[in-house]
Amino acid sequence: MTAMSDDQALLAAVLAAPDDDAPRLHYADWLDEHGEEVQAARIRALCSKWWRTNLFHVSRDKSHSMILMPDGSQVSFKLECPPWCERVDWGRGFIESLACTAADWIAHADAILAAHPVQEVRLTTWPGWRCVAERADKGYCGYELRGGGEVVFADWLWDGPGDEPPADVSDRITLDLLRAEWPSVKTWRLPKFPVTQNGRQVGHLENVRSEEGRVVVDIVTPGSPGAGRITARIV
Predict the structure, then answer these.
(1) CA 178/CA 185 separation, integer angstroms
(2) Are 215 and 169 in contact (CB under 8 A)?
(3) For 154-180, how does the pLDDT look when each residue is reduced to its tens digit (9 = 90+)?
(4) Strand order in the sheet with 130-135
(5) I want to staple 140 with a disulfide (CB 3.0 to 4.6 A). Which of 74, 80, 86, 153 is the partner?
(6) Which residues have a Cβ under 8 Å from the Cβ of 96 and sit 6 or more positions away?
(7) What's the predicted TM-score (pTM) here?
């Protein structure tokens, strides 16, 4: 096993404690000492008591380059959006949340999570997954998001092309796979998914997410009896 360099160890400490400012400030000290003053200034400024609770929203065509401190001084740095993201939110010197397609997330997730303590991911498309193993004697089937990745089992047996799982099963499989592949991400948000009753669409699932080990969905039912927003928690 190759030993981590000082900067790798300091960055690893940031990633391991996303709610703690101290590792970020220690990393900023190292950056300052090694000629990365702009990056260090960005972390210190955004961890300051005036800015630490703010998120800076950055999209592909909009970036931040300067903030104003209470004493009137300006701190210059760049907050940019990776080209494969639709938008990112910077907080306390690092990217904390982002939005992108499922395909782009799967392609770039490992790299960005190695550099930023991303806590929330909003996917704008549904990720595809495939059946990889069966436990037919117990009525379970295994699924994966990417070849050689994590496998989760669900109580729905895939019968081949064209066989689609019920919406609640699909949600659970998708979120279980996302949590298994990238456990450091606390919240997942997925696109709208139609909700049907007796073969008729009555609304859609919105903001499907993971909270405290449970699948949480908002069900929006416009124009139907009891219309409104219902929040359901699925173990």
Answers:
(1) 9
(2) no
(3) 776 666 655 666 666 777 788 889 999
(4) 130-135, 140-144, 151-154
(5) 153
(6) 18, 55, 89, 90, 116, 117, 118, 119, 120
(7) 0.79
